[in-house]
Amino acid sequence: MSLIDELKRRKVFKVGGAYLVVAWLAVQAVSIGFPAFDAPPWALRVFILLAMLGFPIALLSAWMFDMTPGGVKAEGSSTRATIGVYVVAAALAGLALGWYFKGQPSYREGDVPASSVPSVAVLPFANMSGKPDEEYFSDGMTEELLNVLAKIPKLNVAARTSVFEFKGKGGDVRDIGRKLGVANIVEGSVRRDGGQVRVTAQLIRVADGFHLWSDSYDRELKSVFALQDDIAKNIGEQLQSKLGVGELPAARAPIDPLAYDDYLKGRTLYRQRRDMPEAIARLRAAVARAPDFAAGWASLSLALECSYWTTTVEQRAAIGDSFAQLVVAAERAAAIDPHAAMTLHAKANVARAQGRFAEAERTYLQAMQVDPGYADVQEDYAELLASVGRYAEAEAAARALVRLDPYVAIFWWRLEAIGLTIMRLDLVDEAAAHIREIAPGNQLGQGSRYFYELRAGNLDAARSALVAAMQAAPAAMDGAESLFKWATHDPAVDDAQVRRTIAAQSLDVIYVTVRPDAGFLFDVYEKEPARQIRYNLFADLSVPVAQPILKDPRAKDALKRYGFVDYWREKGWPALCRPVGSDDFECGTAAGSSASAGAKTP
Question: How far apart are CA 405 and CA 402, in angstroms?
Answer without folding.
Answer: 5
